[in-house]
Specification:
Blueprint: H1 7-12, H2 15-26, E1 37-41, H3 48-56, E2 71-78, E3 83-89, H4 96-103, E4 106-109, H5 112-130, E5 148-155, E6 161-165, H6 180-194, E7 199-206, H7 215-223, E8 230-235, H8 243-253, E9 264-266, H9 279-282, H10 301-340, H11 348-370, H12 379-382, H13 388-406, H14 425-428, E10 437-438, E11 443-444, H15 445-456, H16 484-495, H17 505-515, H18 519-545, H19 549-583, H20 591-612, H21 628-636, H22 640-677, H23 689-693, H24 697-704, H25 708-730
Parallel strand pairs: 1-6, 1-7, 2-5, 7-8, 8-9
Antiparallel strand pairs: 2-6, 3-4, 3-5, 10-11
Helix pairs in contact: 10-25, 11-18, 11-24, 13-15, 13-18, 16-17, 16-22, 18-19, 18-22, 19-22, 20-21, 20-22
Keywords: GTP-binding, Hydrolase, Nucleotide-binding
Domain GED: 645-733
Region (Disordered): 414-440
Length: 733
C-alpha cells in the first residue's frame, strides 16, 4: 500500500509550481500582477543580513556602508547536482541598453562553500554591472538600483524556498554616500513589494528595541491592516538582558501583544563579530528560562525555515488559479488598449494607410446617412444627429411650410392658396398623442417629432464658434400684416408717373421687394440651420471614426479651412438666388402666373357684380342671373386708382406664388442639396481618401504621426503583452 505523503512533503514536493512562480518573477511579471512571494524587510540594523545568512548560508555584508543597494532574490532548489547560478534581473524601467548590459552577467559557483568564499567579490562585480556607486570618492553611478540580484542554489540537500530581501530602511543619510532622496527611494522600494496582496511580509524586528517603536511594523500595517500576511521575526534575543524584557519578548512570540495572524518567531543568528559556531550552540539559549516556555515550533532558524517553506507552498497553491485568471484578464485588457491605438504609424506608408482607413470610414457613414441606410452602422441608432437625410427632409419641409405661412410681408386679399388643403401631419400631431405608434421607427409619433424639432430647430449658434462668420443668429418672424390694398394704393399714389390707366415696372418692383422683404432673413436662417446640422454631423462622425482626441483635433485643424470655405460657397449661392429673385424686375414664363392672374380678375369682377345687385334680386352663386346693364354698372363705377391698385394686387399675388415656390425649391435643391449634401464639392467631401493621398510627407506626419508619448505607450503595451503572453505560456500545464 502506498504510503501517504505528509503535508509538508506535499507542499515542498511541488517544485514545478514554485518554479513557475520564479520564472514569472524573472520575466518581471511582478510589475503587472502581484506574485506569491516572501519578502524580508527591516531596518539596516535589524539583524536582517544575519537572518538571511542563517536561512540561506550566504554571508551578506553587515556593515552599513557595504549593505546591498538592490533587492536580492535567493532561491533554493532540491536537485541531484550541486550548483549555484547568479544572474541579474533588469528593473522594470531599464533602458534596452542597460537591460542587455545586466542580463549579460552570469556569475557561478561550484557549491555553497564556493559561493561563501567568492560572495564579496561577486557583490563587487554585480555592483559594477548595475552601476552602483559604493564610496564617496567614486564618480557617477547610482546609490540604489531597481535591478534584482538573483541567486539560485541547487543541491540534493536544499529545501525549496524563495525569499526576497530588499534594502533596509534608514532615516539618516551618510555624508557623501546616501541622501534624503535615497531614504525616500528605499522606502518606496519596500512599499512597492509589501503592498502586493500576494506578498508575505517577513518583518525583521530586533528584540532590543521596543516593538511599539519599530517603524517597519508600522509600515507593514499600512498595507496589511488586518495583519493577515505579516509574520514577525524577532532577532538579537541575546541582547535582551533584563528578565522583564525577556518576558515581554516571550509575550510577543506567544501572540499576546501586537497580534498577527501568522504570529511571531524568535531566532538567534550569528553576530558580526562571532565565528562560525554551529546552529545548536547559538540556539542553546532557548532551552533556558524564560525562553523554554515558548512553543518549539516558534523558536529557531530551522522552525522558521520550515514555516516559510510551508507558507510559500500554501500560498502558491492557493493563488495559482487566481494568478492565471488575473494574467489572462490583464492580457485581454492590454490587447484591447493596444488595438484602441490603431495600427503603428511610424512610416509614411503606415500613416497614409491609417489615415485613408479613417477617411474611408467617414465617407461610408456620410453616404449611408445621406441615403438613409441607417442599418449600415450601429452609430445611427446611438445618435439621432447622424441621420442627415431624415433631419434635412424635416428641416426643408418645416422651412417650406413656414415660408408659405409667414414669408409675405402682408396678407393678400382672397389669399387662399392652392395649398390651403395641405394636410400638415406634423402640426396635427401634438405632444399628447403619445399613444400613436410610428411603425417605421417604432417610436411614438409625438416623441419622434420632439426629436426632430430639437435636432433641427433648437440649434444654438454659440455651440459652433467656428461658424461665427458664416451663419445667422436665431430670429422671430411676425405673421403677415393686413391692409394690403391700402398699402398698394398708397404706394401707387406716391410712385405713379404720367402713364394712363396702368402701373409702371418701377411701382411693381417696389411692391415686390417690400412684399418679399422677409425672404433674406428666413432663407439665411434656414441655410444656417442646415450648415449647423452638417457641421454637427462632421464633428460627431469624426469622433466615431477617430477616437483619438489629439489626432482628431489635428485632423480638423487641417480640413477646417476648406470645410468652412464650402459653407461660404453655399451661403454665397443663397445670396445670389436672393439677388436674382428680389433685385431684378419680377419675371416668369410659368403659365400658372397668367392663369392665376386671370382667375383673380374674374373672381374680382364676379364679386363686384354680385355686390352691386339690388336687394331682392335672385342670387344663386354660379347660377345667378344678371343683366348687361348690371355688368356695365359694376365695371364703370371704379376709379382709375382703384382699378390700377386691384390690377397691381392681382399681378403681385399671382407672381408671388410662382416666385415663392421657385425660390423655396431652389434654396432646398441648389443651396442645401447641391452645396451642402450631395454635390461633388460639399463640406462632406473634404475629408476623403483622395485628400489623404494628396498630403505631403510633413503634413502626413503632422496629422497621423504618433506623439512621443503615444509611441512610448505603444512600446510599453507591446512589452507588457509580450511579458503576459510568456507568463500565460509558463502557467500552462
Amino acid at each position: 500500500m502506498k504510503q501517504k505523503d505528509s503535508p509538508q512533503d506535499n507542499l515542498l514536493a511541488s517544485p514545478s509550481l514554485l518554479r513557475k512562480i520564479d520564472q514569472l518573477r524573472e520575466k518581471n511579471i511582478g510589475q503587472h500582477v502581484p506574485l506569491p512571494q516572501l519578502v524580508v524587510v527591516g531596518d539596516q540594523s535589524s539583524g536582517k543580513s544575519s537572518l538571511l545568512e542563517s536561512l540561506t548560508g550566504i554571508p551578506f555584508p553587515r556593515d552599513v556602508e557595504l549593505c546591498t543597494r538592490y533587492a536580492t532574490q535567493i532561491t533554493q532548489r532540491r536537485d541531484h547536482s550541486t550548483h549555484v547560478s547568479i544572474t541579474i534581473i533588469p528593473g522594470p524601467n531599464s533602458s534596452d541598453e542597460h537591460k542587455s548590459h545586466v542580463e549579460a552577467y552570469h556569475g557561478s559557483a561550484l557549491s555553497g562553500e564556493d559561493l561563501r568564499a567568492k560572495f564579496p567579490a561577486i557583490l563587487q562585480e554585480v555592483n559594477a554591472r548595475m552601476g552602483i556607486r559604493m564610496s564617496s570618492s567614486a564618480k557617477g553611478g547610482t546609490v540604489f538600483s531597481e535591478d534584482i540580484l538573483k541567486i539560485e542554489i541547487c543541491g540534493p540537500k536544499e529545501d525549496y524556498l524563495t525569499v526576497i530581501d530588499v534594502p533596509g530602511i534608514f532615516r539618516n543619510p551618510t555624508e557623501g554616500v546616501t541622501t534624503k532622496q535615497d531614504i525616500l527611494m528605499v522606502r518606496n522600494m519596500v512599499t512597492n513589494y509589501i503592498r502586493d496582496s500576494r506578498t508575505i511580509i517577513l518583518a525583521v524586528l530586533p528584540c532590543n528595541i521596543d516593538i511599539a517603536n519599530q517603524e517597519i511594523l508600522t509600515l507593514a500595517e499600512e498595507y496589511d491592516k488586518k495583519g493577515e500576511r505579516t509574520l514577525g521575526i524577532l532577532t538579537k534575543p541575546d541582547l535582551v538582558l533584563e528578565t522583564s524584557g525577556k518576558d515581554t519578548i516571550c509575550s510577543i512570540v506567544e501572540n499576546k501583544r501586537k497580534q498577527l495572524t501568522l504570529g511571531y518567531y524568535v531566532v538567534r543568528s550569528r553576530g558580526a563579530d562571532q565565528d562560525d559556531s554551529g546552529y545548536e550552540s547559538r540556539e542553546q539559549m532557548f532551552n533556558e528560562d524564560p525562553w523554554r516556555r515558548l512553543d518549539k515550533g516558534r523558536v529557531g532558524v530551522r522552525a522558521l525555515k520550515a514555516k516559510l517553506g510551508e507558507l510559500l507552498g500554501e500560498m502558491a497553491k492557493r493563488e495559482f488559479p487566481k494568478l492565471r485568471k488575473d494574467i489572462g484578464e490583464m492580457l485581454s485588457r492590454a490587447e484591447k488598449e493596444r488595438d484602441g491605438l490603431g495600427p503603428a504609424r511610424g512610416t509614411d506608408t503606415e500613416q497614409r494607410i491609417f489615415l485613408s482607413h479613417i477617411a474611408d470610414k467617414f465617407q461610408e457613414l456620410a453616404k449611408a446617412s445621406l441615403e438613409a441606410r441607417y442599418h449600415h452602422d450601429p452609430a445611427f441608432e446611438a445618435s439621432f444627429h447622424l441621420k442627415l437625410a431624415t433631419l434635412m427632409a424635416f428641416l426643408a419641409e418645416s422651412f417650406s411650410r413656414e415660408f408659405e405661412a409667414k414669408a409675405a410681408f402682408r396678407n393678400f386679399e382672397n389669399g387662399d392658396s392652392e395649398d390651403d388643403d395641405y394636410d400638415d401631419d406634423y402640426d396635427e400631431v401634438t405632444d399628447e398623442d403619445v399613444t400613436h405608434e410610428d411603425s417605421s421607427h417604432n417610436l411614438p409619433a409625438a416623441n419622434a417629432l420632439r426629436l426632430l424639432r430639437a435636432a433641427t430647430q433648437d440649434l444654438d449658434p454659440q455651440e459652433f464658434p467656428e461658424l461665427d462668420d458664416i451663419i445667422s443668429d436665431r430670429y422671430e418672424v411676425d405673421d403677415p400684416e393686413d391692409g394690403i390694398m391700402d398699402w398698394i394704393t398708397n404706394l401707387y399714389v406716391r410712385s405713379r408717373g404720367m402713364e394712363l390707366g396702368h402701373y409702371t415696372n418701377a411701382v411693381q418692383a417696389s411692391a415686390w421687394r417690400e412684399q418679399s422683404s422677409k425672404w433674406p432673413l428666413m432663407s439665411r436662417a434656414f441655410t444656417s440651420r442646415a450648415i449647423m446640422i452638417v457641421q454637427r454631423f462632421i464633428t460627431d462622425t469624426l469622433s466615431i471614426v477617430c477616437p483619438d482626441s489629439n489626432l482628431r483635433d489635428t485632423l480638423w485643424s487641417c480640413i477646417q479651412e476648406e470645410v468652412l470655405e464650402r459653407y461660404k460657397k453655399a451661403t454665397g449661392f443663397l445670396e445670389y438666388l436672393l439677388s436674382v429673385e428680389r433685385e431684378l424686375n419680377p419675371y416668369t414664363l410659368n403659365k400658372h402666373f397668367n392663369r392665376a392672374r386671370q382667375e383673380a380678375h374674374a373672381d374680382r369682377a364676379a364679386s363686384h357684380i354680385l355686390s352691386t345687385l339690388g336687394e331682392g334680386e335672385q342670387v344663386g352663386g354660379d347660377n345667378a342671373t344678371v343683366t348687361i346693364g348690371q355688368v356695365r354698372s359694376s365695371t364703370r363705377d371704379k376709379s382709375n386708382i382703384q382699378d390700377v391698385a386691384e390690377q397691381l394686387h392681382d399681378g403681385l399675388s399671382s407672381y408671388y406664388e410662382v416666385a415663392r415656390k421657385r425660390f423655396v425649391d431652389n434654396v432646398c435643391t441648389q443651396v442645401v442639396q447641391s452645396h451642402l449634401l450631395f454635390g461633388p464639392n460639399t463640406p462632406l467631401r473634404v475629408f476623403t481618401q483622395d485628400w489623404v493621398i494628396g498630403l505631403g510627407a510633413e503634413q502626413l506626419d503632422a496629422i497621423a504621426g504618433e506623439s512621443s508619448s503615444v509611441k512610448e505607450h505603444r512600446a510599453n503595451l507591446a512589452r507588457k503583452i509580450k511579458d503576459l503572453k510568456e507568463a500565460k505560456k509558463i502557467l500552462q500545464f
